[in-house]
Fold this sequence. Notes:
Methylamine Dehydrogenase, Chain H, 8 helices, 3 domains, mainly beta, 32 strands, 28% strand, disordered N terminus
Amino acid sequence: xxxxxxxxxxxxxxxxxxxxxxxxxxxxxxxxxxxxxxxxxxxxxxxxxxxxxxxxxxxxxxxxxxxxxxxxxxxxxxxxxxxxxxxxxxxxxxxxxxxxxxxxxxxxxxxxxxxxxxxxxxxxxxxxxxxxxxxxxxxxxxxxxxxxxxxxxxxxxxxxxxxxxxxxxxxxxxxxxxxxxxxxxxxxxxxxxxxxxxxxxxxxxxxxxxxxxxxxxxxxxxxxxxxxxxxxxxxxxxxxxxxxxxxxxxxxxxxxxxxxxxxxxxxxxxxxxxxxxxxxxxxxxxxxxxxxxxxxxxxxxxxxxxxxxxxxxxxxxxxxxxxxxxxxxxxxxxxxxxxxxxxxxxxxxxxxxxxxxxxxxxxxxxxxxxxxxxxxxxxxxxxxxxxxxxxxxxxxxxxxxxxxxxxxxxxxxxxxxxxxxxxxxxxxxxxxxxxxxxxxxxxxxxxxxxxxxxxxxxxxxxxxxxxxxxxxxxxxxxxxxxxxxxxxxxxxxxxxxxxxxxxxxxxxxxxxxxxxxxxxxxxxxxxxxxxxxxxxxxxxxxxxxxxxxxxxxxxxxxxxxxxxxxxxxxxxxxxxxxxxxxxxxxxxxxxxxxxxxxxxxxxxxxxxxxxxxxxx
Length: 616
């Protein structure tokens, strides 16, 4: 049986007594992150949440011939010989860089490979996840591709197993795949476990296999046979977009960079997504309040393997002098002995704001505060960071494609090919509220949360992956007729973003409409039976969910009013289901929502129907 560990999360939830918490084998400590003390732009008047904070600058409108993929982050590795490997999902390339000589070897991959996570094995071979190809590429240190391994439809994270001869890949569909790292090995990659979907990263910490998920902070421990031993989740916090999990240099503690959500819009501030300015920080650079002005804020979680729950001080927040959180859309984290570095990809088009924040790593039991923050502005758009040694970092920029060595400020170009796209830039840019579109729609998907943002009531975030084109009007209630209206009402209005001209709005529409659907499971006998059920008259799914978008114009009567028919493209990748999130599993679509009721089906039939939905 899975056990959910006790969580230390003071100020977001009532602190548990030590006696009541001591049974938990592991502890997640949440540390909300804010920009460095005193780094808010000057001129912000007291009490104003956004005044004086610059808008992002998108420059002249540009549309890439091939729309670049959404930012995924975490594409760097520093090899044992000091060379740097950078995966470039925008250009389907991998770069092996001799930083000392500024020499770059480019490995050109197949179009659409979209390389992601990178690791090195004991032999010195480099393994790269190919997110868009369902595979791994194995390279030698010179950049020669030695082998490609098909592993699963949508691989995400990977790590080396302690035996030194096998790697482990985790996939968006829930697959856990073991593969032999020797390119000459005859054995094919083997699926050793199938978990629920949304897997993100995998690390070995204190000898344990730990797996994270993207849409919330949830760390799953796997046993010797890759069975689920226990799951650690925060209690009382709405966590979201856990973009990266890494382990510290000693291989003991994993860290996850993510966001925290306040699920109701503020009425006290100038904008629904912003709110009032947080108070000034204390002399230590920390403040007792857990949430500042924005409904979405970045945070860092640490999982302790001590076996003890040590509440320590209340969790604190590092605040700016004035204004809300400005470290928008954190996508990567790196940890060394004394420091933690975070990449705020949402600041890539606001040049006066740091894109990399570095915190002194505290040694206290609960790590409730990260004092001594330093901010680094970057030439380009930062998406990944790694430590090269104590106090020395490398930061990867997606546009232009280059590395920047810190603190030396040495820039190493990687490619002259531009992948600039204004729609992509708008989608990922943080606004004056410290929020980007990608904050809730990371990688074009959704956060899995149910929000109450206006008087119309609670609704869950919808996925944008392959679901937008030819489906206007937008939003659950169909009250947004065009992307142009969406930009004005949501980005400029609710998010305190810049006013976009029509050319920029058209670029945003073009990029969002091009977001591909997720790679999903291959058809099986069970899914074929499920397809027949899907189309059967008494189930009636196909009555509304038809065509390439698996939707249709019009509305249906749901709980709380009339709603648009949502697309089922990639439906298995974004539970919970329906506008209220009332169904958590495709096998249990029981919400009393008219035609969606499947209680008359047998358990086997519901399993077959779920198998079919997993292929969409």
